[in-house]
Amino acid sequence: MSIDEKKLKESIRLFLEAIGEDPDREGLKETPDRIVRLWKEFKSYENFNMTVFEDIGNYNEMVVVKDIQFYSLCEHHLLPFFGKAHIAYIPDGKVCGLSKLVRVVNKFSYRPQVQERLTGQIAEFLEKELNPKGVAVVMEAEHLCMSMRGVKNPTSYTVTSKLTGIFMENEKTRNEFLNLINSHKKY
Length: 187
Ligand SMILES: Nc1nc2c(ncn2[C@@H]2O[C@H](COP(=O)(O)OP(=O)(O)OP(=O)(O)O)[C@@H](O)[C@H]2O)c(=O)[nH]1
Hints:
binds guanosine-5'-triphosphate; GTP Cyclohydrolase I, Chain A, domain 1; metal-binding; 7 helices; zinc; GTP_CycHdrlase_I_CS; single chain; 7 strands; GTP Cyclohydrolase I, domain 2; elongated; alpha+beta
């Protein structure tokens, strides 16, 4: 669904009034339009071409893209949660463009979310698009709803994971993935 610009602008005005602000004051009068632009940008991450390649020689080992910075919004407070995603899969005859793994993360991140669902959606999408031997997704994130309000605990972070196929079945494969994402070497 696309953004209902009129409704969004009206609701931002109402929201500002409800928290005791004057939506017509200098600093706020453009805010409804800015928020419309922001949500249009977020929506734009939903669609992209999942380029895949089948000419990959005999490559049938793990592909890992780690430390993917992501930003999402907790659906309970609409405050950001953000951190790093690590994705691996073992191809079965085809791979995707590496940037597409980042695009998949963005596709599901830029919407009201919970971290557990987000992690699962990324893994399910890759399963569907690549039919690999298995997918592993680990996400580590700080939730501002726990840092800047409520329990006010900025040192804690949340780790979620979704493993499918060979990553679930084979301990050696799972450990290889965990070792790769936990090594701090860049090259
Ligand atoms: N699997 C794999 N993909 C690569 C490698 N080097 C570059 N790529 C990816 O090749 C893909 C080409 O995808 P296209 O959709 O044709 O190109 P694009 O529109 O420029 O893609 P974006 O980078 O997503 O903007 C990109 O996802 C690159 O990240 C590589 O060594 N292995």
